[in-house]
Amino acid sequence: MQINSIILAAGLGKRMKSKLYKMLHPVCGKPMVGHVLDLLEKIETKRKVAIVGNGADEIKAYLGDRAEYAFQAEQLGTGHAVLQAKPLLENEQGVTIVICGDTPLVREETLREMIRLHQESGAAATILTAEMENPHGYGRITRDEQGLVTGIIEQKDCNESQQLIKEINAGTYLFDNHKLFKALDRVTNHNAQNEYYLTDVIGIMKADGDRVIGYCTPDPSEAAGINDRIGLAEAEKLMRDRILRKHMINGVTIQDPAQTYIEPDVEIGQDTVLLPGTVLKGKTVIGEDCIIGPYSEIIDSTIEHGGTVKQSVLQEATVGEHSHVGPFAYLRPGARLGRDVKVGDFVEIKNSTLGDNTKVSHLSYVGDAKVGKDVNIGCGAITVNYDGYKKHLTEVEDGAFIGSNVNLIAPVKIGKGAYVVAGSTITHPVEEGDLAIARERQTNKPGYAQLLRNRIKARNSKKD
Q1: Is 407 annotated as a binding residue?
Q2: Which of 118, 178, 362, 428 is labelled catalytic?
Q3: Domain ends where: 203, 223, 243?
Q4: Main-chain phi, psi angles of 135, to 5 degrees
């Protein structure tokens, strides 16, 4: 069965009170409409049409060619919005999902179950519903003795008995594609709002003798649409709790879920431990048996099996197996650590590779460098990679020793097994096995310390 989809993404979202278009407000690091499109891609919908209006350029810039677009020049109701997709979809076969771009909490398993029920029942429409203890503000679902949906009654139209109904319309639908557009042509705007309602399609289908069913989700949060900053915060918490629960079920220890933030595309292996304050973003991949945190932020990075990251920040970096980062290290884009590497406190690595068993233990900067295996880089050593116009490469081959407070002025190469003594400023290549010394010869002046103090004291007295 072919599956098509329509994403309703044309609303202005005035209640967000924001310069950012509503559908682009992030939930767990990803714009809400992005979550919806991800969902539709997971169930392999053939055609995905986004109905855009306000903020159309921003929506298109974000979604790109992942969707087709239909423009709703005037917001005349949900039925009118769906009708804009008719030129693109009216001749397609199968079913069409209609879903709002501000409902990021709808789950893949829910849509799959709706599709299964829709196929088995031969329904013209399947409505996602939910039961709520406080259904105020939502359209109520009415059913007949066989459990088939007979209608959707909006809150303002409910009588006293209908207001007691707890099953509500969650705003996601499956339709027989041909019947959807046939019914939409008959929807009118004869109502108080002078709008064309998608829910009127249900009544038209019932009048035609078509079957309409409802699938009541066990998770009422899937019905939540985000209309303001309060709803945004609530959705953020609900999604974050889902993500954390998924990882814990899959074998990840999260010591304090209330202080742990994980975005939806993050992958984590079994027996990894996340300590309080851990923040994992983007396409980050954490292997098995890792220890992350406390208070580490990792963005679009890979930590291989057995890695440790303590109180550090990583962005677009790779940490090899059993390597140790931190505390208080910063791995910037392009940092690539091999196996059993140590990057210690207050070390910054940028656009550099460090070979297996290499150590940069403290207070150093390595940028635009290629560092081999078994290299020791001492405290305060830096690669001087920028001349004010261009970045240059530093190469340090296997087994070299870089002493404390060494400056390597790029472009420069330190050969295999070479030794650079502390305090040196290296401007020329050091060949394999050589010892490099590049510092002023020390001069001691006996008794001069007190003489210098006296001169300084006298000079300061004259200024006073």
Answers
A1: no
A2: 362
A3: 223
A4: -85, 10
Residue 116 annotated as part of some ligand binding site: no
Q: Is 240 annotated as a binding residue?
A: no
pTM value? Answer: 0.91
Main-chain phi, psi angles of 235, to 5 degrees: -65, -40
For residue 242, with 0-12 CB atoms within 10 Å meaning exposed, 13-18 middle and 19 or more buried, which class applies? middle
State CA 391 to chain mean position distance.
31
Q: How many domains does the chain have?
A: 2
Do residues 179 and 107 both lie within one domain?
yes
Amino acid at 200: D
* Residue 118 annotated among the catalytic residues of the structure: no
Supply 59's token pair.
């929506």
**Residue 49, token pair as written in the block:** 């049409």
Give the CATH number, domain containing residue 340.
2.160.10.10
Instruction: Read off the DSSP letter of residue 411.
Output: S
From first to last of its 464 residues, the chain has per-residue pLDDT tens of 899 999 999 988 889 999 999 999 999 999 999 999 999 999 999 999 999 998 899 999 999 999 999 999 988 999 999 999 999 999 999 999 999 999 999 999 999 999 999 999 999 999 999 999 999 889 999 999 999 999 998 888 888 889 899 999 999 999 999 999 999 999 998 877 788 999 999 999 999 999 999 999 999 999 988 999 999 999 999 999 999 999 999 999 999 999 999 999 999 999 999 999 999 999 999 999 999 999 999 999 999 999 999 999 999 999 999 999 999 999 999 999 999 999 999 999 999 999 999 999 999 999 999 999 999 999 999 999 999 999 999 999 999 999 999 999 999 999 999 999 999 999 999 999 999 999 988 899 999 999 989 998 988 887 66
Q: Is residue 237 marked as binding? A: no
Residue-number span of the structural domain to which 185 is assigned: 3-223
Q: Is residue 91 a known part of a binding site?
A: no
Domain-embedded: residue 443: no
146 is in an annotated binding site: no
